[in-house]
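Ticket #4471: complex job returned nothing on first submit. Input attached below:
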Amino acid sequence: MTEPTFEEAQRELETIVERLERGDAPVDEALSLWERGEQLYRLCLARLDAAEGKVEELARRADAAARAAETAG
Amino acid sequence: MKVEAQLYGDRRVFTVSAFNRGVAQWLTRLPTVWVEGELTELRRQQAWASVFFTLKDPADGACVPCAMPRGQFDALRLGLENGERVHVYGRPELWEAKAELRLRALSIERFGLGEHLAALESLKRRLAAEGLFEASRKRPLPRFPRRIGLVTGNDAAAKRDVVTAVTTRYPPARLLVAETLVQGARAAAAIVEALRAVCAEPEVDVVVLARGGGSFEDLLPFSDERLVRAVAACPVPVVSAVGHEQDAPLCDLAADARASTPTAAARLVVPDLDELRARLDRARDGLGRGARLTLERHRERLGRTHERLRRAPPLLLERRRAALERAGARLRALSPRATLGRGYAIVRRDGTLVRAAGAVAAGDAITVEVADGSFAARVE
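Support reply: We reran it on our side without changes. The output follows.
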């Protein structure tokens, strides 16, 4: 199975939460849904952390380029 | 009339009066001429036989006093005022009493303005009727012209002012300067040719037509029909920066934009580099902020979803437990023990339920079960 995108994972997670909140899932299924939900949550969190790291890295690089341009100019 | 001198030995001596009269007479031999100048110090009084004024050369301030018989002056009905350019037809004469030279005016014409203004006004109306000055014909100026054509006089000031204003505002600007005559009879044709030449150069995206301030006549070439038409027909937008705010040569009306100063022209043809930089910086900051904000929102939403995920299973189990307990209660309610609690008893003989009176006979041993236990009994 291919890794879901952030949006796919988030959508699946929210569907699971809604299913659990309706309270009509069989107990065994509820437990496995919960487990799957936690797994999806960790996946989304890791994606967000990675994206945030990338934003900071880009900002740092742009700042450095601007400083270099200023010194050169 | 002969001017007589007195003789002291071999010395001929003139009286002051005779000297002045002599010079005055000699001056009458000079021809009658037209003199152009600016009318100043106009003095007219009912009591005086003449009207007096001074004619001033606007170029260097040289002056000549003038006089004209009041009746003649009034008959001209010019309503002249100080500061007007005039042509005075007259001859030099000496005011003998003071030996002052002055111009005896025979006629005065208002120079330029009258006929020129009327001609300009009719040209303006004609071109306007053709639609040459329509707002809909005005083209937008390029925001980032590759090259800027500058058509200007060969006097240094106008050219330098525009070049300085443009390069100060936008240092990378590339200017192509065409110098030309801007004054005199051949100026209009020369400017038209310069305009054509500049537009023929590659990458010229806008042209500035620049000329410093000047007199009404100085700016006349910029109202010449050929030039006005050339400006309107120019393949690239034209900015007219001719004269000052109060001057309104016709090329201003045909141009796509007009500027009353070199700085204003620069503002029209090039962007402000500092401002561009500042805007770019703000955009970049916004970019970073936007990315962070988006991630922050996703993180919050994920956090809320996770909280719901955590709360849901215990709640679900809690509901199941409650349902189970309700089922247990109903089960208990259905058990016979509840019936015994209300005072009923179960009777058994040899472990078999007694359901009818005929099922037992006197002397039989039975067990009776009540709510809190059972006891043995005998049928009578």
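Chain A touches chain B at residues 6, 10, 13-14, 16-17, 20-21, 23, 25, 27, 30-31, 34, 37-38, 41, 44-45, 48, 51-52, 55, 58-59, 62, 66 (CB under 8 Å). Closing as resolved unless it happens again.
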